[in-house]
Amino acid sequence: MPHHPETDLLDRVSVQDGRAIHDPATGDLIGHTAECTAEDLDRAVAAARAAQPAWAARGYEGRRERLMRAAELVEENSEALARLLSREQGKPLNGPNARFEVGACVAWLRATASLELAPEVVVDEPDNHSELHYRPAGVVGAIGPWNWPMMITVWQVAPALTVGDTVVVKPSEYTPLSVQALVAVLAEALPEDVLHVIPGGRDIGAGMAEHPGIDKIMFTGSTATGKAIARSSADNLTRLTLELGGNDAGIVLPGTDIAAHAEDLFWGAFLNTGQTCAALKRLYVHDSQYDEVVDALARLATATPMGNGLDEENLLGPLQNQQQFDIVARLVEDARASGARIVTGGEPATDLGELFYPVTIVADVTDGTAIVDEEQFGPALPVIRYSDLDDAIAAANGLDAALGASVWSDDPEAAQQTALRLEAGSIWINKHGGIHPMVPFGGIKGSGYGLEFGVEGLKSVAVPVVLTR
Ligand code: NAD
């Protein structure tokens, strides 16, 4: 396929009589999405089941060749995909946003398709030679959120296709066009029926979770929905990977060079305008450097341009939807009412558009305040003062959410010791949210279970069988 301008991609996925999708930055109509029914879901699952044996029979080499071609097609269409993503999701083209997201799709596809699951000899004794083999799980159902819709689709789809599964994707109802466009590009490199997309609402997601024809659900979204999926998949014992909500803590140790880390702290919290699962969502700072950190973050907050994502200079965008906007506005209001100091932002940026909320640094706030204890998932960061590190660690570990966490220090030994005491699936030192296609990623406690990326990620979409002789 040659380069598609964005309008061509939209023409392919937008339908006349579908549900209207609007740009969150401007309110402008982008297009109309199809909405699938339960019958469409059944048809997609049946077609994916029928296509799976032949896809598996190609072997890693045969599938890799197609997946590398799919990566090439995404790369060739990256600007059109990024522009559509920016318009539908709201995220700017530049910064750690739309172009970065499409680039990550290409990188994850290539890295994942280069892997394979070889049999492992687990015991080799005279009377027992045992091997662990991995087979495709079968049909994978991929249910995704609206914050990184293309990248998370690739996270779910690439390992499944690599090991020989076929896939049915259910995009978020907020970002269906971006995901359908991405799937349309990917599908050009794949045999028919290997990859399906069925846009639809929560009912279609729930239908997937209880579908007997789906062998594995890859879910990324909120903790409440993850629990609903675990309940409705129980009768079929469907295998699950649940990447759920986070409320990541960061701890700045005393004596840290704040100027050297300020930008990384800022983007750890505000990439994708804070709408990121593993973003820094509460920051614990030692008393001795508290004002310095708050001032540094406030300076960056006011200096970083926010606005329409298609304007090249912007690095921060709107909230994607009204519901998320309301959550952020409510949490900031509640913090103000309980005596916190709003250092920057704190009121909707109505001059930019209805769904814009400025970067809001909330200081002099304590644990127990809703903006600390609940996931804000937007451009507001509570900064909490501590004087005793044990207290900060206890507070960081005190919530059910446990996706990521970070420690900030120029003393590697102290950083390592503190990191090992934190309860989270990923713990970063002097960075937050950094991911890599070969490094496993997943939550613990209320943030779910199962790992994505790398060889561990392949294992999660395969079934292990043991061979003994
Ligand atoms: P959400 O749970 O509301 O929706 C996610 C998807 O689930 C959507 O496609 C939705 O239609 C579907 N769904 C809704 N109800 C369902 C049901 N009963 N059964 C099956 N599917 C159902 O989440 P969201 O608002 O789109 O995303 C934001 C949340 O996702 C945040 O909490 C964020 O932290 C989390 N998230 C986590 C990760 C991660 O990797 N852990 C990544 C991105 C987002």
What report would you give on this structure?
It is a single chain. With 469 residues, the chain is of the alpha/beta class. The chain has two domains: 7-244 and 447-468, Aldehyde Dehydrogenase, Chain A, domain 1, CATH 3.40.605.10; 248-429, Aldehyde Dehydrogenase, Chain A, domain 2 (3-Layer(aba) Sandwich), CATH 3.40.309. The chain contains 16 helices and 20 strands. A seven-stranded mixed β-sheet has the order 12-13-14-11-10-16-17, with helices on both faces. It has a six-stranded mixed β-sheet with strand order 7-6-5-8-9-19, sandwiched between helices. Helix 3 (59-76) runs antiparallel to helix 5. The mean pLDDT is 97.
Q: What separation lies between the terminal Cα atoms? A: 49 Å
Bound molecules: nicotinamide-adenine-dinucleotide
Strand order of the largest sheet: 12-13-14-11-10-16-17
How much of the sequence lies in strands comes to 15-25%
Structural class: alpha/beta
User: Which word captures the global form?
Assistant: globular
* CATH-level-4 superfamily name of the largest domain: Aldehyde Dehydrogenase, Chain A, domain 1
Number of domains: 2
Number of strands: 20
Topology of helices and strands:
Layout: H1 6-13, E1 19-22, E2 29-33, H2 38-57, H3 59-76, H4 78-89, H5 98-113, E3 120-125, E4 128-136, E5 139-143, H6 149-163, E6 166-170, H7 176-187, E7 195-197, H8 202-209, E8 216-220, H9 223-232, E9 239-243, E10 248-252, H10 258-270, E11 280-286, H11 290-303, H12 322-337, E12 341-342, E13 360-363, H13 370-373, E14 380-386, H14 389-396, E15 401-402, E16 404-408, H15 412-419, E17 426-429, E18 444-445, E19 448-449, H16 454-459, E20 462-468
Parallel strand pairs: 5-6, 5-8, 6-7, 8-9, 10-11, 10-16, 11-14, 13-14, 16-17
Antiparallel strand pairs: 1-2, 3-4, 4-20, 9-19, 12-13, 15-18
Helix pairs in contact: 1-4, 1-7, 3-5, 3-6, 3-7, 4-5, 4-7, 5-6, 10-11
Bound molecules: nicotinamide-adenine-dinucleotide (NAD).
